[in-house]
Design a protein that fits this description.
The protein is of the alpha/beta class. The protein has helices at about 10-25, 40-45, 50-60, 85-95, 115-120, 160-175, 190-205, 215-225, 240-250, 295-305, 310-325, 340-350, and strands at about 1-10, 30-35, 65-70, 100-105, 125-130, 140-145, 150-155, 180-185, 210-215, 235, 260-265, 270-280. Helix 1 (about 10-25) packs parallel to helix 12, helix 8 runs parallel beside helix 9 and helix 11 packs across helix 12 (about 340-350). The structure holds nicotinamide-adenine-dinucleotide, 3-isopropylmalic acid and manganese (II) ion (MN).
């Protein structure tokens, strides 16, 4: 089990260290960790946010544990040199088109949500976000109009094969869990979304057992915080899934709680090759202060054990330890508590 650990920038290294400590505490036989540079840290050291040697290490691994990238000192660089290109490049180069972002209020932890407890209790959804297409990877640029005005532009598109393969991932997840599937789009305005909806309907024919509905993204945002119990699996494009998953994390209680798995088609010996990361960023406002909540990254390591290594029991053990730590009041500042990164990590390991 070869894991490439890519800590990145800001709080990335702080939260990644705690997730690595949890993996080490499990003492799994055959686990080997390699560490590589990504993001602003890699730019400052090697002149590129995703150096060749890091990409090679990622390709060699069975799974990647990723922290976060983003460095305010790099925001004025040409776009291809900015830290965010590291994560976008890894997703694209490694064919990681399926991003799973589970958002769930643990039973008994409704008080961590800013929503009314009776609403929060119904929040248990899996966002299946397409990750290598959409307006993220289309042509883009800035130009001057005939009137001499500056104009920025980004092309949004999805091909039917891109929609079909992510739709299959979402339908399979919904079928396996016996949950309804909601496909999110903006088909009332966007042609990209009309094609999305048409293809999702075609794929639905293969899954008669899954209850499917379609919802516009603005309504989906509203329902996420007013009627989250309506959702089981949410299928979204890249941009809508990015926004809805931050919203769902806030509804759970904190962005410091939401993990993710990014999967493609490549199989390893025991599962699917994948990249695992918290959904949050490098949080420059709290970086270096030992305040970041590492739970999202620890839960991402659990997803790694489940999806890439077939270790369901060990994954559940980590998730149980996190839930118990929260129930016991091991809360970071993001959840109104006073525990720091190291204390939260230690609290989880004690409960493994
Ligand atoms: P962010 O997720 O980094 O932070 C948003 C807010 O949430 C901040 O107030 C931050 O302090 C808080 N927060 C985030 N994670 C936390 C944690 N684990 N514990 C406690 N509080 C936490 O989003 P942002 O501020 O919009 O972006 C900062 C940088 O991160 C940008 O450069 C952005 O591009 C990048 N980013 C990277 C990723 C990634 O690497 N996958 C994801 C999102 C943003
Ligand atoms: C995320 C992040 C990334 C995204 C950025 C950093 C490119 O916000 O993983 O949610 O938009 O996908
Ligand atoms: Mn995001």
């Amino acid at each position: 089990m070869k894991i490439a650990v890519l800590p990145g920038d800001g709080i990335g290294p702080e939260v990644t260290a705690e997730a690595v400590a949890v993996l080490e505490a499990l003492a799994l036989p055959g686990l080997t960790l390699f560490t590589g540079d990504v993001g602003g840290a890699a730019y400052h050291r090697h002149g590129h946010p995703l150096p060749e040697e890091t990409l090679a290490m990622a390709r060699e691994a069975d799974a990647i544990l990723f922290g976060a990238v983003g460095d305010p000192t790099c925001d004025a660089l040409e776009r291809h040199l900015r830290p965010e290109q590291a994560i976008l490049g890894l997703r694209k180069h490694l064919g990681l088109f399926a991003n799973l972002r589970p958002a769930k209020v643990f039973a008994g932890l409704e008080h961590l949500s800013p929503l009314r407890a009776d609403i929060a209790a119904g929040l248990d959804m899996l966002i299946v976000r397409e990750l290598t297409g959409d307006v993220y990877f289309g042509a883009k640029g800035q130009r001057t109009t005939d009137a001499g005005e500056r104009e920025g532009w980004d092309a949004m598109s999805y091909s039917e094969s891109e929609v079909r393969r992510i739709a299959h991932v979402a339908f399979r997840a919904a079928a396996a869990a016996g949950l309804p599937l909601t496909s999110v789009d903006k088909a009332n305005v966007l042609e990209t979304s009309q094609l999305w909806r048409d293809v999702v309907l075609e794929v639905a024919a293969d899954y008669p057992q899954v209850a499917l509905d379609h919802m516009y993204v603005d309504n989906a945002a509203m329902q996420t915080v007013s009627h989250p119990e309506r959702f089981g699996v949410l299928l979204t494009g890249n941009l809508f899934g990015d926004i809805l998953s931050d919203l769902a994390s806030a509804a759970v209680g904190s962005i410091g709680l939401l993990p993710s798995a990014s999967l493609g088609e490549r199989q390893t010996g025991h599962g699917t090759f994948g990249l695992y990361e918290p959904i949050h960023g490098s949080a420059p406002d709290i970086a270096g202060q030992g305040k970041a909540n590492p739970m999202a990254t620890i839960l991402s390591a659990a997803m790694m054990l489940r999806h890439s290594f077939g270790l369901e029991d060990q994954a559940a053990r980590i998730e149980g330890a996190v839930a118990r730590a929260l129930a016991d009041g091991i809360l970071g500042g993001d959840l109104g508590g006073s525990h720091g990164t190291a204390a939260i990590g230690a609290g989880v390991r004690e409960r493994l």
